Amino acid sequence: MVPTASAAVHPPVTRRPPGRAAPRDAPLADPSTLPERDPHRLPWPGREVTSGGVTLHVRETPGPDGVPAVYVHGLSGSATNWTDLAALLRTRAAGTAVDLPGFGLSRPPASGLYTPAVHSDALLCFLAGRGRPVHLVGNSMGGAVALAVAARRPELIRTLTLISPAMPDRRPDPRRVSDRRMLLALLPVLGRGARAALAAQSPRERAEQVVRLCFGDPSIAAEHRLAEATEEYAARARQPWAFEAARQTGVAMVAGWLRGESLWTVAGRVQAPTLVVWGDRDRLVSPRLARRTVAAIRGSRLLMLPGVGHVAQIEAPEAVARAVAGLWDAVADGSWEDPGPDGR
């Protein structure tokens, strides 16, 4: 879990680097059509659900009948990362935030192996078993997992939202990372010492470190959310598989980048209407990848958030909710046009 911001208003802007055509802006829903955010909202109730032969712990947000939303967390996260965004979107769609295998309160896979491909397979089977298209929303590693599922089974995905997806990047810049141990820990061999140091942290230290790394402005993290995150990290520390799940998944993700395995080709196969959201202070996945991601996914739109970091759905939930609701509304009323294979 990453603590939710206490209060933040980040007007959306799209910035245009010189020499390139600007991507199309995301449509934004009228804020008056969204419910007011309760900054003290508790995480949605959770339970285990078996679907498509896969059992995951999920947190469910009640909402209207119609196309449901499914939310997928990142490497250090869980279903609680979506508490506020799911609440803001609950008048448009019922939500299911999943804990990927070995994360949150989900049990480990029978194989004991954790890679992005394992998580993609699990999510795909889970969605296929439910038998209806969904609005799929993913952050960071969860964004990469969602992207792979959308490319493989387009009939399962009504819309796709990617929030700072973990797109391959062979040019990481350690100067942009506030705690270099977190970056070093993802390296397959060199990161052993860093991983051991992270494992020795107290739950409170871990929560504070994640905020420093993932927020554009760490000072806005609410104290009660830090306390919630501390409790969650303490609970995960008691799970015998939790550290290995995060270690194997992170190392496999970076190893895939180094081997040249590329989500960029996968992105070109996505058919669903897609929204890409990025914070311009993202210290984990470079904001310069935002434009490339939009260019790789036909007809996608971009929301760039100034002052926001890696977990925009937590740090600026109102701004993200307006864009996601705008996507859903535009698809529902037919105004999200597909320019075809030769245009944007």
TrEMBL record:
It holds the Pfam family Abhydrolase_6. It comes from the Bacteria. Residues 1-50 are annotated as: Disordered. Residues 19-31 have a biased composition (Low complexity). Residues 70-323 form the AB hydrolase-1 domain. Keywords: Hydrolase. SUPFAM superfamilies: alpha/beta-Hydrolases. InterPro entries: AB_hydrolase_1, AB_hydrolase_fold. GO terms for molecular function: hydrolase activity. This is Alpha/beta hydrolase.
